[in-house]
């Protein structure tokens, strides 16, 4: 009898040891993959935290010691983060007033933190319906459609996070280059308007849907955990394949993040969970960054193929401006066509007022 008890105890200890070793092996494997293919995070609002907490006074910010954000240098290193898209976000209540100034200030604070910044901007506007407002254009306005094609010509990356399904379908149907959803998840897992329905996932094809970690978009509730986030990865992979998946944490822009993904340092645990669920090394590497790098390459290829195309310098119709503070210079009788503007002006219009988050 004593022998049986000893053997049973040994078996329990052995099984427990195997479980621990297996978990450690998965984490080690995750670290290895993240060193070979650095993680690219599609959306991070750290610059907004600089403004919110420090009024952009960077002399007061020590990114090695900053403890009030999801992101700092020690957490970045621990999380094996290779790159992030930093958002030049400003609140919606600034639209049509001081939004341009505040956006430029946010760009400036990013430039003061690093030498290079991926020029991806966001603002709710009158050129495209958003998921949070009543529909005005049944999707893109006519001028909004022009801007999509001009973005293709310029080699700008189109981001469809924060737009309704109508706009998703319109842009996917007309853009010559692949697009991204920088921080959106699977609607079938959590039916929130910020997430992407299955029928749209099937149309993304060469683009990327970068899974968001905000609890409200993960479980449609105030609470979530790491496994719930992995469910979104699994669902997108099942519906449309691993080639359209990426990471879009939304850290420092949300108030609730999943248990187990409290900050950017925890992302390797999510990678280990995907490995535990049977994802191959190649599949994980695609999600970490290879898929997004492929999109970059294709966007540039489309740009290069359109080098012979002339810039679209037709300005926004005056009737679409909906801003009494805007100068009417160049608009005869405050209506009709304005004198042609430069491509740079159009680019600024795109960057500061147009598209998507």
The appropriate CATH architecture is Alpha-Beta Barrel
Structural class: mainly alpha
Strand count: 5
Number of contiguous helices: 13
Rg from Cα: 23 Å
Strand content: 5-15%
Helix content class: 40-55%
| N-to-C CA distance | 67 Å
**Overall mean confidence score, pLDDT:** 76
The shape, in one word, is globular
CATH topology: TIM Barrel
Organism: Acanthochromis polyacanthus
Membrane topology: Lipid-anchor; GPI-anchor
Enzyme class: hydrolase
Catalytic activity: an L-aminoacyl-L-amino acid + H2O = 2 an L-alpha-amino acid
Structure description:
It is a single chain. This protein is mainly alpha-helical. Helices cover about 45% and strands about 5% of the residues. The strands form two sheets. A three-stranded parallel β-sheet has the order 3-4-5. It is globular, with a radius of gyration of 23 Å.
Q: Brief description of this entry?
A:
With 357 residues, this protein is mostly helical.
For the structure shown, list the relevant keywords.
mainly alpha; TIM Barrel; 3-stranded parallel sheet; globular
Topology record:
Elements lengths: L1 H35 L2 E6 L1 H9 L18 H6 L2 E6 L12 H13 L30 H13 L10 H10 L5 E2 L16 H7 L3 E4 L3 H4 L7 H15 L4 E3 L19 H10 L4 H25 L12 H4 L21 H12 L3
Parallel strand pairs: 1-2, 3-4, 4-5
Subunit structure: Homodimer; disulfide-linked.
Enzyme class: hydrolase
Keywords: Dipeptidase, Disulfide bond, Glycoprotein, GPI-anchor, Hydrolase, Lipoprotein, Membrane, Metal-binding, Metalloprotease, Protease, Signal, Zinc
């Amino acid at each position: 009898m004593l022998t049986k008890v000893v053997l049973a105890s040994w078996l329990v200890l052995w099984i427990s040891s195997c479980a621990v070793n297996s978990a450690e092996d998965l984490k080690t494997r995750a670290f290895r993959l993240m060193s070979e293919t650095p993680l690219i995070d599609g959306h991070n609002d750290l610059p907004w935290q600089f403004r919110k907490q420090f009024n952009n006074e960077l002399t007061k910010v020590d990114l090695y010691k900053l403890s009030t954000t999801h992101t700092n240098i020690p957490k970045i290193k621990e999380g094996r983060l290779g790159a992030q898209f930093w958002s030049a976000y400003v609140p919606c209540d600034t639209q049509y007033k001081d939004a341009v100034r505040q956006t430029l200030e946010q760009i400036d604070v990013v430039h003061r933190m690093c030498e290079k910044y991926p020029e991806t901007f966001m603002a709710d506007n009158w050129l495209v319906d958003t998921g949070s407002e009543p529909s005005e254009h049944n999707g893109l306005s006519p001028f909004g459609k022009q801007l999509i094609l001009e973005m293709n010509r310029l080699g700008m990356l189109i981001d469809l996070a924060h737009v309704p399904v109508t706009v998703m379908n319109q842009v996917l149907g007309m853009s010559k280059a692949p697009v991204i959803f920088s921080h959106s998840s699977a609607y079938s897992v959590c039916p929130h308007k910020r997430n992407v329905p299955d029928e749209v996932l099937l149309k993304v094809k060469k683009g990327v849907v970068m899974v968001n970690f905000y609890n409200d978009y993960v479980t449609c509730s105030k609470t979530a955990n790491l496994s719930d986030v992995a469910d979104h990865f699994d669902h997108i992979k099942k519906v449309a394949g691993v080639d359209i998946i990426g990471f879009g944490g939304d850290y420092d822009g949300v108030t609730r993040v999943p248990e187990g993904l409290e900050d950017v340092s925890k992302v390797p645990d999510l990678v280990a969970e995907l490995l535990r669920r049977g994802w191959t090394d190649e599949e994980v590497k695609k999600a970490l960054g290879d898929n997004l790098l492929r999109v970059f390459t294709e966007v540039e290829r489309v740009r290069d193929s359109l080098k012979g195309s002339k810039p679209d310098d037709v300005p926004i119709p005056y009737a679409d401006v909906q801003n009494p503070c805007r100068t009417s210079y160049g608009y005869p009788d405050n209506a009709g066509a304005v004198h042609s503007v430069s491509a740079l002006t159009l680019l600024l219009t795109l960057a500061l007022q147009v598209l998507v988050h």
